[in-house]
Amino acid sequence: QLTSIYPAHPLQPLVWIKMRLFITAGLLSQCTALLAPRITRSVAPLRAAATEEAANPRTFGLALELDDGTRKVHSVAENTQFVAGFFKGLGQRESFAQLTTSFYFVYEAMERALDTLDCPTLKALDFPELRRLPGLERDMAFYYGADWRSKIKPSPATRKYVAQIEKVASGDEPELLVGHLYSRYLGDLFGGQMMSGMAVKTLGEAVGDGSGGLAFYEFDAIPDSKAFITDWYTALNALDLAEATRADIVEEANVVFRLNIEVFNELEG
What we know:
Elements (H helix, E strand, L loop, with lengths): L12 H23 L10 H10 L5 H13 L2 H13 L4 H24 L3 H6 L7 H12 L11 H14 L8 H26 L21 H13 L5 H23 L4
């Protein structure tokens, strides 16, 4: 059973059970999507199909390649491992602060690369509304005080993650950072509200709010996340990239997923 992988946790039983069921349901729906056969619309008019694609950019191009390519290689074991680490991050304030600190170092490296690299591909996907570093700096001040810069340091898994970002950024194909933008920005936009809400329910005022402590999860400049994600995927599909580069971007996105698992796994909780 998937629920058997969850560690002992100091949550109130009812809240804990509800959260386990919520996440497990998400995992099951993802597995179902993997196993479901593709439905071909051989009798649908070509014009209708084209209209559908235009309305949903996730159904074609690099957007589809990333969605499918990252989904297929994520085994159930990896997903359950991720969820176990996810709940560790909600176990106590110190673990949640550690997780947020890891995000700070990851985003500092990624957004520094975006600021310094002269790469049209990355610039096309660098939407200001997605930038997380200002919020993370407020979170660091909440958890560690005004002199937080002298107090924090990256964990071993975080250093490995940052090293991968810097390796790609300094390499011959900085376009591979698209895999990082896709995995990080969209993942945090999709799941940020859930993670923030669960943190408040389990840890209360100890994790702060959108002004500090949970600022990382606030996307105030994106009032309609669904419409924004559609725009981002549209920009992604408009990139002029060789087939080999696209495949490398998908693989890099999978590297990011595994690096995230390592960050979660080292949390105390």
